[in-house]
Write a structure and sequence with these properties.
30% of the residues lie in helices and 19% in strands. The protein is α+β, with helices and mostly antiparallel strands. The strands form 3 sheets. Strands 1, 2, 3, 4, 5, 8, 9 and 12 form an 8-stranded mixed β-sheet that branches. Strands 6-7 form a two-stranded antiparallel ribbon. A two-stranded antiparallel ribbon has the order 10-11.
Length: 401
Amino acid sequence: YLKDRLPKGVKVNYHDKAVSQIEAVLTRGDTSLCSYIEALYKKGCYLDAWGEHFSMRVWHEAAEECGINLAELAEHQYPLDEPLPWDFIDVGIDKEWFVKEFKACETAPTCETGCVNCGVCKNLKTKKILAKPHVIPNLFRDLAASTDGKTLNRVQGDTRRYRLKLTKTGILRYFSHLDWQGTFFKAVARSGLNVAFSQGFNPGMKISMGIALPLFAQSKCELVDIELYDDISPDALKLKLQKNLPPESEIISIVKIEKSAPAIDHTASWAEYEIKIFNRGLYDFETLVYNTNKVLSSEEIFIEKKTKKDLIKTIDIKKSIKSHRFEGQSLFIVLKTGQSATHVDISTNVASESPVAAIPAVRADILMDVIAPGVMFDITRTRFFDKDDNVILRTQSEESQ
C-alpha cells in the first residue's frame, strides 16, 4: 500500500513478516527454545541472519518437531505479574520500577538531572560518577570555523603514514571485519596518538584495515595503514598501541611508508594460508592430501558467487591458486587476494597489467569447501605477497629462510 503511493526515488526497506515473526520468538523466548535452537543447528542452519542462508521451511519444520507454535510465542501477551523470560538477567534495576515506567508511558529523566531511584546504585552497591563536561579542543573549534576545509592541515602540519603488521588470533577469530575495525579504532583512540582525520561533513580516522579475513579464520599477518600528525618512531608507536590492543592482537612490525604508497588491497596480490584439520576423528590428513591434489590438478575449478544484484555467477578460480605444499600435518596454499591489477593473457598464459582476463580473488574457506565439502578446517593466514612475490613486511625469521 505504501510503496504504491510513494513517489519515485523513495526507497522503502522492510523485513519479511515471516522473518519478523521468528525474530520476535527468539527475542521474547525463554529456555524452552534451547531444544529448538539445537534442532535448527542439527538441520544445518548456519549464519541464517544472512538472507542467502535462510530457509523458512527448515525453521518451521524444526518448530513442528519440537512442538513449538511460532505464531503463539511471537504474539504472546505477558501480564505484569507473570515471570518474564529475561527476569534471570540482573541489570540492577528493580522490576517494580520498570512496571511503573510502563504504566506511566513516559521516559524518566537521565541520572544527570537527578536520581530516579531505579535501584541500580543500591542493588549493585555502586554510586553515580559523572564525567567532566566535554570541552571542544581549539583545533576542532578552528576546524568548525573554517570555510576552506584546510584549517586542520594548517594547524597540525604534515602527516606521516605507517604500515603495521599484527596478529588476529584466539577469540578475535570470532570478530567480523567490522568488529575488528571498531576494536582497532578504539585502541588508537585510547593510545592518545594524534591521528589524522578525513575532511568533510563526517570526519573519520585515516586508518585502512587492509584485506578482510573470513570469519572464524586467524591471521599472523594482518596489515593496517594509519596516518598520524605525530613524527614518531615505529618502536614508540608500537609501545603506545600495543598496551591498548587485546592480547590476541600482537604487533609484529611497523614501518613508515610514503603517503603516496598504494593502498594495502592494491599492494597485496597473494596470501598464504595454513590449513589444519579441525577434527581428525572425522577427517584424516591422507584424505585431505588426496582430495587437494585431485581438485587442484583439474584444468578448471568452478565456484558459484552471488553478485550485488543477487545473480548467481560461476567463475573459474584455477588461476587464483598460485601454489600449494604439505608440511607436517598442514596444507599451505597461496591464493589470489586484494584488488591488484594482475591479469593473464589466456592465449599466452603471461601475467600483464592489461585487463585481458582478471584473476579473481578467492577466500580460503570457499576453496576448502570445494576440496572437502562440509568439513571444518582451522585456517590461518600466514603471509602476504606483492605482485613480484615479495613478502610484505617481512619478519627476521622470514628473512633468514
